[in-house]
Amino acid sequence: MTLSTALSSFDLHGKVAVVTGSTRGIGCAISEAFAAAGAAIVAHSTDRDEVDARVADWSARGWRVAGCVADLGAPDGVRNLHRSVESSLGTADILVLNASVEIIQPWRDVTEESMLRQSQVNLHATVGLIQAFLPAMSSRDWGRILAIGSVQEERPNAGHWFYSATKAAQTSMILNLARNERAPGVTFNVLRPGAILTDRNRARLADPAFEARVLENIPTGRIGVPADCAGAALLLCSDAGSYINGAVLAVDGGMRL
Question: Domains in the chain, please, with CATH?
Fold first, then answer.
């Protein structure tokens, strides 16, 4: 295989990529990598201002983009996102399950309300999104479903008792599909970030003592940034990764070790 052939396998021209929670952090970095590779992308959030800002920015770069405001924890959230994509960009080829709710509570403090919210977005929406987008991928014999997991699945902190359980359950769903769906052109994988400097983690990592404790567990000696996840996602969601199915790829600097 020549270098040009290898590089062309990362090309996403003609593909439609849906990354949930794509206006910031890891979802934003992945969406921008997909768009740079040629895909049409979706700016999705629960915040109208964030969506509008991303649509303006990405459109100015010459990318094909649609905006969608949808709460995946609401009864009509998945349906609204699916309809928005279908009407504006067409049938999706790539689905990245990135949006999640993380409520930090030790087991004694977990409430029904927090369990319900995390379950609705992290699990119920996962089921709904797959049921909405997978059939068309299977019928065309090309598709990519990628879940963004968490290092909390392997190294759970006490405060992530319920959240880590929802992410582990999501991974189980993806691996079940990878084993049993047997769709030749459709793959199911998990990308598992470690400590990444996102808006969600910025306040905690701004505490020098907390950051020092985190860094003690990372062999590469640095906190990751959202762009660290983009290349791995592009591999798993392009033809370059067509024979990668059922993988759980850690992007954590070795934190899981």
Answer: 3-250 (3.40.50.720)
Note the pLDDT tens digit of each residue in 93-110: 999 999 999 999 999 999
Confidence grade of residue 129 (pLDDT, cut at 50, 70, 90) = very high
**Contact, 152 vs 167, CB < 8 A?**
yes
Active-site residue set: 163
Report yes or no: 146 and 236 within 8 Å, Cβ to Cβ: yes
Whether 81 has a pLDDT exceeding 90, the answer reads yes
Identify the pLDDT of residue 243: 97
Q: How many CB atoms lie within 10 A of CB 26?
A: 27
Entry pTM: 0.95
- Residues 201-229: pLDDT tens digits? 888 888 888 889 989 999 999 999 999 99
Rounded distance between C-alpha atoms, residue 234 and residue 153, angstroms: 23
